[in-house]
Amino acid sequence: MRALDLKDVRFKYQGSSTWALDNVSLEIEKGEFVTILGANGSGKSTICMLANGLIPHAIQGNLEGIVRIFGFDVKEHKVADFTTKVGMVFQEPESQLFCMSVEEEVAFGPENLAVPRDEIRERVEWALELVGMKGYNDRSPFSLSGGEKQRVAIAAALSMRPEMLVLDEPAYALDPIGRIELYSVLRSLKEKHGMTVLLAERDAEEAAAFSDRLVLMKGGRILGSGPPRLMLRNPQDLRAIGVNPPQVAEVAALLNTRLMRSKFSFLNVNEAEKAIVDEVLALKPGGRQ
Ligand SMILES: Nc1ncnc2c1ncn2[C@@H]1O[C@H](COP(=O)(O)OP(=O)(O)OP(=O)(O)O)[C@@H](O)[C@H]1O
Ligand SMILES: [Mg+2]
Question: Based on CB atoms within 10 Å of each CB, which residue in 32, 139, 155, 229 is the most buried?
């Protein structure tokens, strides 16, 4: 059973004359870390809202095709059936935080499910620890930085013990260090806890370095999907969907063109440095020492 199965999905928002998603098929395995990349209006948020049942239940429209979340057909289940399976984190952490303290915020979901007090306390500590916010229990969410708020929003989703996290441009308001920290937290949730992670992003830089798979979207359609190394081989594929390729991918592509081969493929600066140093050493008289 997969975490998410979209088969020939089309979706039109109520009152709209165009399809926001047009013939989308996407399969996400359990434990996979998948990032959807696309420009404004490409359909990323619409996929996120399909992945947790908000579409078609809370957001009306015309849905065609099959959507299965952990094997359950969305049309045959309520949103509430998915709240313990899928945790959702939105672009603006402020839109999700409304309690007086971090602890209340993270406890809110399980309290609504009438989880016993002791277990709630355990879940809060567990979730805050996972996102690196241990000890922030009594802080007001409004006194936190953007990155900290976003982590509390993730902890609040985690306290429901979901099997999949869906995050819609969660790194949007973060500075470069905050972005890397956020992606590291998500990656470790996958590595250590087998969490399935589905992200929507407009920026390929960290997505390329941290994801198992990139999905390229344009105009409500999926144009390609595959491991980052494969998807970044031709940086113009990303530019064609309105997304800036990571600079290291551009360097790799330029070197390959210049040297007339397809040897280089970098996902991060460390890989680039190592490959280039190896190359230079191999060219030195006497070869590698
Ligand atoms: N509530 C709505 N009613 C009507 N049309 C909508 C609604 N929400 C989104 N759309 C349309 O659906 C299409 C896909 O929008 P979606 O929000 O999924 O894109 P996105 O990739 O998340 O864009 P962004 O990067 O701006 O967040 C767009 O054409 C958009 O105008
Ligand atoms: Mg969006």
Answer: 155
